[in-house]
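Predict both folds.
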Amino acid sequence: MAASLDTLPAELLYKIFQVLDREDKLSASLVSLYWRAVIHSLCWQALNTKAKELRLNPVQLRAWGWEEESHSFLSCNCIHIYLDFKPFRNSELVTVQEVRAQKDESIHPTCAITPSRIFVGSTSLASPAQHTSIHIYDRNNVQDTPVMFKTFEAMTEVHLYCHENTLVLLERRTPENFITSVISVNNFKLSIWNTETLELIQYVDFLDKIQDIPRDNVHTEISDVAIEKDTLAVHVFVTNLDWLLPDEVIQNPQSKNITLFWSLDTLNPSKTNLRFRTLIRKSLVEGNICDTGFIFLNHGYFLRYLSGLFASDNQPKFATKIQVFQAKDLTTVQPWIVDINQSDVLDFGDCNDDSLKLEPGLSSRIAAFNVYNSSFKIIDIVKREPVLFVDLSSHFGLNPMFSVWQMYDANWVGGNFMFIKDAPQLNAKKKMLQVVIVTQEKNKTNHLQQFQNFLIGTSISPVLEFGDVITPGTRVHVDLAGVAIVNEDFIVNTSFMHTSQINKQKQ
């Protein structure tokens, strides 16, 4: 059969191989050099598209053996990267390093992670000199002494965001008394930095854009920031001083929420290319379902996250939704609503938001993970329907050693969603973590039991102590360089090392 197919033109073979699933393509690539060359062409073009759409980092791709220009299949790893998800599976070498918080120190999980660095804040809680600092860790060796990026003489709430070579720093002085203090947007600062040169580009002036928001008897704050290719979004959030007041529903101040947008060159940020673009209001309030203060942005869409209680057949329910805007036409195209989840409410513990992750680039897909009801969805926000739904309880309920709480949602990479799974080991003092790759097509082998879309990837071991807990709010990040995990107690960085790095270390 192989001999007869070898006589077919490459163009026809290309079309035949396109309809094969991932595992069959991998098998076919081993049949002959001719077949491998055709399958390589398919993989190379797909990787080029992903790099162009920024679903994969081009610099990291090149380090793993991808070449943008036309090249021989004998000199690259295009097939392994595209079909075998290298390095998320079968990585040649995995190194693990940990940094622990010092005594009376709390690390801020609201960090920024680039392909080579981790920008992370930490607060010293020791009296009387309580203060906050931002350090930069090298992802190739997080145990090296970090670079001091910025210090604050007082405790400061720090949130960091990045895209390409642009770092956004949101800072707010921590109030002395959380109960009596009024949160004011006047106490927030927003600045733009270059992640490569560490140069301050500019403090962003936003107060003059929001002069008409209510200021009396309300909290006002910058609740979230999103940055995508050449666009910065800043969400200004308004809530009552007492969230239990009846007029929180009757005259909900969240209807006054505003999102501000700036354009800039995220690859080469500068004062000259940072320009205010527009602002949008249109904050949705439907009964108790309203803006939560969280936003999401990619090159195609801007989203606001909504949640709240409603009644159906006289039964209370909790719903999560998103309000969707077209990123290129924020003000004239009418936004639409997409349902994410809803659940019955027996007590306030049933009111749990989903963890949402919007796929980068022009994608219309968003991942929704709800650990409380053991569900995972991928939703097309244009078609307003799920393209994948998984009830995880049907897997984790089979074995008392496993729990859905051992699954940590990370982010999208190259068109696939990534989880990190805690794989308990009997009689072990250390943990073992596994990369789990969510694929749109079902896999025949090497997947989680009963879940063919969940492909088991590279193992990370030994790591952390057996009693360490990866708590909700922990930042989990996966990319072609490795896995970074940041929570209040520790920083873990796992590096996927390719052959050139291994050889360099041996020299």
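Second protein follows, with its predicted structure tokens after the sequence.
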Amino acid sequence: MNHLLTQCDVNEIIVPICFLMYQSRRDPARIGLVHICTFVLLKLSGERSFGVNLNKPFKTKLPCDMPLFSGSHSDLISITLHKLVVNGAYKLVPLYSCFITIICNISPYWKSMSLVSAVKLVNLFELFSSPKFLYSGESAHRHLALLLE
């Protein structure tokens, strides 16, 4: 892990991970792939050097219907995770706390946020603070607390 974070450009790994997560969000046969990608991002997001490297500009055009934005790789991660929550399969609900933890882990190193990413984060706040979501489960309020953190 240390070699990956210090010697390699982790952004070259993040783009395919986000693309795979984005493409697999609705396919029940590929939910396991989303789980693996989530845990890889969760592990990487705990490292300071990873968070700092995410500030490099994102200039790649992905072959999917992801919204156009000009920003960093942190924006790419937040937009991807937003799409997984809003438009993902129901089987991804157990990963919501992991998604928000990833955002919390990278947020201290996030230098500038794109408008699209900011709107997506506000949208997540609205979703997690809605009565329908808060009453959906015993621990649903934790998602909101993590997002505010």
